[in-house]
Amino acid sequence: GQQVMQIPQYQHVQEGEDFTTYCNSSTTLSNIQWYKQRPGGHPVFLIQLVKSGEVKKQKRLTFQFGEAKKNSSLHITATQTTDVGTYFCAGQRSSASKIIFGSGTRLSIRP
Amino acid sequence: DSGVTQTPKHLITATGQRVTLRCSPRSGDLSVYWYQQSLDQGLQFLIQYYNGEERAKGNILERFSAQQFPDLHSELNLSSLELGDSALYFCASSVEPGQGLEKLFFGSGTQLSVL
Predict the structure, then answer these.
(1) What confidence tier does B96 reach under pLDDT thresholds 50, 70, 90?
(2) Residue A6 burial (CB < 10 Å; 0-12/13-18/19+)?
(3) CB contact A24 to B (< 8 Å)
(4) 3-class DSSP assignment, residue B85
(5) Is A96 an 8 Å CB contact of chain B?
(6) pLDDT tens digits for B59-95?
(7) Which of B43, B101, B109 sits opposite A101 (nearest CB)?
(8) How many other CB atoms are there within 10 angstroms of residue B56's CB atom?
(9) B52 touches chain A (CB under 8 A)
(10) What pLDDT, in 10s, does the model give residues A23-37?
(11) If contacts are CB pairs under 8 Å, which of residues 94-113 in chain B contact chain A?
(12) Assign residue A107 a region: left if phi > 0, alpha if psi is -120 to 50, beta otherwise?
């Protein structure tokens, strides 16, 4: 069945350093979404990417969707303590299919 | 506040028991999803309902069942509980699947502890 893999599982960085998490799907996706889950909280939608090669930015966060629509990345520039949490990608094979989440990358930050 | 309400927030029960988790989606959202999150694990898709009908099924155990009622709230029933069923169960809702802009709004979850 459809699988969405995410690496790394954990990332511990110094405040101010950059952070990147990568997501790979076993199948071509119609779209990919990114969510953030703060410790003790619930996942919160960040963004959705639909087009091949799409790049979107939200302040210090940059999201990319691969040309083949099978991989994606989230890059955070100059991390801050408020960035702490687990970042999940979530993919759909078609716009009507189930949304499958990656295993997540837990980001922790040294002040 | 996402607008998705889940009750109860915490549930402690014993092995072999049956529990019901409840979810009220955001006003206007027709689709409800259930996910299971075990300790330090990802979100495992269980099942999706759209306007009362089952839309998609994940790796949901036969001991688990769900339904969506005419008022669009949903219940997840877990029976013959085992220790390994202890997890955080999330409900999420979206406006309408299949439109290519499916954005999930998650509830705060129900923390189930099976002792």
Answers:
(1) low
(2) buried
(3) no
(4) helix
(5) yes
(6) 899 999 999 999 999 999 999 999 999 999 999 998 7
(7) B43
(8) 17
(9) no
(10) 999 999 999 999 999
(11) 97-109
(12) beta
